[in-house]
TrEMBL record, chains A, C:
<dbReference type="InterPro" id="IPR012736">
    <property type="entry name" value="DhaK_1"/>
</dbReference>
<keyword id="KW-0808">Transferase</keyword>
<keyword id="KW-0418">Kinase</keyword>
<dbReference type="InterPro" id="IPR050861">
    <property type="entry name" value="Dihydroxyacetone_Kinase"/>
</dbReference>
<dbReference type="GO" id="GO:0019563">
    <property type="term" value="P:glycerol catabolic process"/>
</dbReference>
<feature type="domain" description="DhaK">
    <location>
        <begin position="7"/>
        <end position="323"/>
    </location>
</feature>
<dbReference type="InterPro" id="IPR004006">
    <property type="entry name" value="DhaK_dom"/>
</dbReference>
<dbReference type="Pfam" id="PF02733">
    <property type="entry name" value="Dak1"/>
</dbReference>
<dbReference type="GO" id="GO:0005829">
    <property type="term" value="C:cytosol"/>
</dbReference>
Automatic annotation (TrEMBL), chains B, D:
<dbReference type="GO" id="GO:0004371">
    <property type="term" value="F:glycerone kinase activity"/>
</dbReference>
<protein>
    <submittedName>
        <fullName>Dihydroxyacetone kinase DhaL subunit</fullName>
    </submittedName>
</protein>
<dbReference type="InterPro" id="IPR004007">
    <property type="entry name" value="DhaL_dom"/>
</dbReference>
<dbReference type="Pfam" id="PF02734">
    <property type="entry name" value="Dak2"/>
</dbReference>
<keyword id="KW-0808">Transferase</keyword>
<feature type="domain" description="DhaL">
    <location>
        <begin position="16"/>
        <end position="203"/>
    </location>
</feature>
<dbReference type="GO" id="GO:0019563">
    <property type="term" value="P:glycerol catabolic process"/>
</dbReference>
<dbReference type="InterPro" id="IPR050861">
    <property type="entry name" value="Dihydroxyacetone_Kinase"/>
</dbReference>
<dbReference type="GO" id="GO:0005829">
    <property type="term" value="C:cytosol"/>
</dbReference>
Length: 327, 209, 327, 209
């Protein structure tokens, strides 16, 4: 295992300290590193709190800031944070208008956020993100996983929270955006959990994992590496099959951490053509490493159906460490 | 989970024994970090060993406090420590298990009270996990162990057999469920950690101090 | 070789097409894909043109936009662009106030930009970037390489150009920022040039390449992997030895493409502490993948001494695909 | 670079020969892409074979135009094509070499004129590259070949020996110079491509059509 670290036990703390120091105009560290919060809070607005296992950087702490999250709770690598983190974060950032949890649909995350909501003595609603079409819901009772679509929900709901909308309203908006969002990923290599020290899975030199999750969980099937166009075709087909009507769409090509931008833009090119040939109009785009799996090579494609409301919210200013526009 | 002679005899588990049980369970987790992690790498995200280790390190840091408390409070305290330190799926589940046991048990339970409290704790795990038996999870060890406790069966062999029996199952809950049929053929990591805990507990309670 | 591509001959064109399509609010494609230029030009200002081999994305095209470059010329992977590209770019974006070339100090780049400047019939000055202290100038007559410091120069000079400053003034500013900038990198793995198909170099499982260049050129020495603190110590020592007085500084921790953000922030943490213990005040920070080497794992550390002028220019608004603030 | 009988006999290189020379040089590059790339991977950035291939593909795409032109214009045209297509260091350098040759040579040069023009072209390469002999570059083949041409030596063996002689050199120019002492022990890719071009040219000029 080759990583820049001093040891698996301190990697998370040292990295978080670096993150907060590098962006101290935007974020501040919570007590005991339980959460990262905005440096400046806006009292009166609903507080958005997300979090999850670490190793998906910049998700979630990179999206703390005006127009997106109020706080993010980082768990150990690929392990949900614990309820005390969410409770402490809520205590710190709830401005009196209630708290919205944004949670990726993994049992660990769901249960820990749920326990936090039960134990915290305040008004909390939760949006569960489950955008990963690689998981066929007909066969898996756990339901779909939450992957890169999470940042789309965080952005759009974050903008709406900034407008002063109420908690129930934001929860409904989050559910709506989640319902309009579909993703699927593919890995070309594994990732290595620092504390484990060995790759989570292994692929042959000519193999890829189609439908991989963002923790290196194996996907739909392991197949021979194919040209980018064929990969895009399979993913877009899977996504389009699960979308309602085609229409205006946001296309997000998200790198898993080990794939260069050159390839991500190439995948964007391939995916966009295939979406448009199916009647989608790609009106908003994002390409980069946003929801990663440590150093895993690979990418995911996310499509969110947009309407006038969500388009305007997507375009609203945001100032976080990892996503910034209009301010 | 001792072997009380009759359903209605109250068991007194003294502070020294409580301490030995806690330490034994923690040690079992520390000794099997790699095994649990490897199991979780096969069908999950490869952190189960590390999660349990982190949780029981926190428990061990406070072992004096935990052991000094009466059984129900000790269980609740350890459960809460796991909830607050483990994260992932196993933290809330083991935490719920122990916290429910702590809530249900009197300080010196009879065997019948133990069976009933354990049953309630398993139900609480099911509720927390929206899960049930046969879904290739820790429940598939906890359930059979509960039955063996009720019926006077051997807890250790029951636990091992039950963990082994998760191998051919297809996961319906937990990360392994994302694999569908590919989850078949691997032991569930949480089933294994449950069996390890059972062994550690019976070992202490069956061995004189 | 595992890459998202349809073939090595089309990877660059398809990726560029994707890039321009994804950011068509900011950039437009030049004729025959010879360059990428701003979608909207500002007549009357000096035009900043950079470029170089591809494979360093988002450098340079990702920095085209208000407040940074006017155009970028992408060469083949790790190969300087050709003079016709720079000439065509200058023809397209010169608003009458002259053109400033920003060129990384590689003989290929320098010669091709030089030929372009000779052949183009317009006023052109050139800033050469040579920030890489891994190259000890005493022994190498070619001089230092230009690496991640390039984006710092592009940002600061870009902001000054936006203010309407003249060509000679901008050239002097560029030279000044370059002179105040020092970088050094380390690789944990190699990169694979798509057309070559095999790794440019190979490292054992416990080795790193200290002082690596951004084309996978071997560096100062190949050594055993060390803890992050020791790596940061060596790099900061090398950089500080080549800086003038300590003082206010920008600290840029730049990923080479295959290293996750978690590790980059950890390196930032380690580097910052070591700079501060040497009397530097880290007043501006940047962490991310900006000047990459395809999928190479590793990072570089860049320090730029700042004064009031360059600090203000660093803070000025910029709106490019890969770097955005204040707008 | 034929083998003219005396310094003052003008050589006529007809269109068919020009075409054969161009095609032979291009083919030599195409045939050695991997070798040149491997050499460049050892001490550079691994693209020299690809760069030369790309350049000569562009030349071959216009071979009719190039071959139809008189020798000086053909050389300039090919040089310009290389400049505009190769990129990297070798593009401007080979381009400058050929463009200078084209500028210096008459349509039917004598051997003395050829020697003199080749010398001027080498000086132009030095000026463009801010480089000199002995720095482990293409110049270390071009220089000895120029001397052999002047002195009537064998161009092929001179070129091969000169390329081999770059192996023990420490690079002072080109990307290999970043390696310092680690550049020692490898042949310079540009030296090798120069030798390959010399072979291709002599081979055509010494073989009847
Ligand atoms: N819904 C559930 N109900 C019961 N047990 C579960 C459930 N989800 C997961 N588990 C158990 O938790 C174990 C995984 O724990 P761990 O790896 O620590 O957490 P995570 O899956 O979040 O990484 C599984 O092997 C399984 O036994
Ligand atoms: N300054 C220079 N003067 C003469 N020849 C040079 C110089 N720099 C590089 N070369 C030659 O160019 C060759 C490398 O060409 P190439 O790999 O195509 O370009 P790049 O180094 O830009 O990738 C070297 O092997 C060397 O022979
Ligand atoms: Mg986990
Ligand atoms: Mg796990
Ligand atoms: Mg090159
Ligand atoms: Mg080269």
């Amino acid at each position: 295992m080759k990583k820049f670290m001093n040891g698996p036990d301190t990697i998370l703390a040292e990295s978080l300290d670096g993150f907060v120091a590098a962006h101290d105009d935007i974020v501040a560290m919570g007590e005991d590193r339980k959460f990262v919060r905005r440096a400046t809070l806006s009292p009166g607005k609903v507080a958005l709190i997300s979090g999850g296992g670490s190793g998906h950087e910049p998700l979630h702490a990179g999206f703390v800031g005006h127009g997106m999250l109020d706080a993010a709770c980082p768990g150990q690598v690929f392990t949900s944070p614990t309820p005390d983190q969410m409770i402490a974060a809520a205590d710190a950032v709830d401005g009196g208008a209630g708290v919205l949890f944004i949670v990726k649909n993994y049992e660990g995350d769901v249960m820990n956020f749920e326990m936090a909501a039960e134990m915290a003595d305040r008004e909390i609603l939760t949006v569960i993100i489950d955008d990963d079409v690689a998981v066929e819901t007909s066969t898996f009772s756990t339901g779909r996983r939450g992957v890169a679509g999470t940042m789309v929900v965080e952005k759009i709901v974050g903008a709406a929270a900034e407008e002063g909308r109420g908690l129930a309203d934001l929860k409904a908006l989050g559910d709506k955006v989640n319902a309009a969002t579909r993703s699927m990923g593919v890995a070309l290599s594994s990732c290595i959990v620092p504390a484990a020290g060995t790759p989570t899975f292994t692929l042959d030199d000519d193999e890829m994992e189609m439908g991989v999750g963002i923790h290196g969980e194996p996907g739909r099937r392991r197949v021979k590496l194919e040209p980018a166009d064929a990969i895009a075709e399979e993913i877009v087909t899977a996504i389009a099959a699960e979308m309602g009507a085609s229409g205006d769409a946001l296309l997000l090509v998200n790198g898993f951490g080990g794939t260069p931008l050159m390839e991500l833009y190439l995948m964007y090119h391939a995916a966009r053509a295939r979406l448009e040939s199916r009647g989608f109009r790609v009106t908003r785009s994002l390409v980069g490493n946003f929801v990663t799996s440590l150093e895993m090579a690979g990418c995911s494609i996310t499509v969110t159906g947009l309407d006038a409301e969500t388009t305007a919210l997507w375009d609203a200013p945001v100032q976080s460490a990892a996503f910034r526009q209009g301010m | 989970m001792a072997d009380p002679t009759s359903d209605s005899t109250a068991m007194a588990i003294d502070e020294a024994t409580r301490r030995r049980v806690i330490a034994a369970v923690a040690q079992a987790m520390f000794d099997h970090v790699e095994e649990l992690t490897a199991l979780d790498q096969a069908i999950g995200d490869g952190d189960h060993g590390l999660n349990m280790k982190r949780g029981f390190e926190a428990v061990m840091a406070d072992i004096d406090t935990h052991a000094a408390k009466p059984l129900p409070e000790a269980l609740s305290g350890i459960g809460m420590a796991l909830v607050m330190k483990v994260g992932g799926a196993s933290g809330p589940l083991y935490g719920t298990l122990l916290m429910t046991l702590g809530k249900q048990l009197p300080a010196e339970p009879t065997r019948a009270e133990l069976v009933s409290a354990f049953g309630a704790a398993i139900e609480a795990v099911k509720a927390r996990g929206k899960s049930d038996f046969g879904q290739k999870t820790m429940l598939d060890v906890l359930g059979p162990v509960h039955a063996a406790l009720r019926d006077g069966g051997d807890l250790d062999t029951t636990a091992d057999k039950a963990a082994d029996a998760t191998v051919p199952l297809k996961a319906i809950r937990g990360r392994a469920s994302f694999l569908g049929d590919r989850s078949i053929g691997h032991m569930d990591p949480g089933a294994r950690s449950s069996a390890l805990m059972i062994h550690a507990i019976t070992n202490v309670l069956e061995t004189p101090a």
